[in-house]
Amino acid sequence: TYIYPSLRPYELITESITDFFIDSLYTRPDFIRIYICSPWVRLDENHIEKIKSAIFTASKQYANLQVLIITLPLERYRDKKATETLKALKQIGAEIVSNSRLHAKLYISEPGPAGGNHYAIFGSENLTGRRNIELAIKIENDNEILRKLSLYFYEIWQESRILEEV
Hints:
The chain is of the alpha+beta class. It has helices at residues 17-27, 45-61, 80-91, 143-158, and strands at 10-13, 31-37, 66-71, 95-98, 106-111, 119-123, 136-140, 161-162. It contains four helices and eight strands, in the order E-H-E-H-E-H-E-E-E-E-H-E. The N and C termini lie far apart (44 Å).
């Protein structure tokens, strides 16, 4: 940041964190991997369509694109719209695992070899788009922290169970 002061490595997000993350994917589909760690995943049609569009665009550049999701076990989901969201994400190729102890909320966009925007968002909001009072921080241009957040995601992934049927 001393050499390039316009590169802001940290940004505070105080509202619409789900919209912020999904809109970032939609406007910059330069990722090879998306990490979603959220106990509750419940998206409206507009969110799902934006994710589908972003994945479709990114998959033109990266055939080995991955969408990795960690969430709570299905028996904890009581909302039909939430299970429909997981089904829609699985249909577009998302790999979904569950962890009954999950409380963390972490969203990462990882660029591929052609470059792109590498960032992570973590905070209090589940991936639901609800209008609660929430707080998150976006970290960008800090490779050490981004690496550690990705490793943390994989630690949770390793202790989770594959969600085979949605």
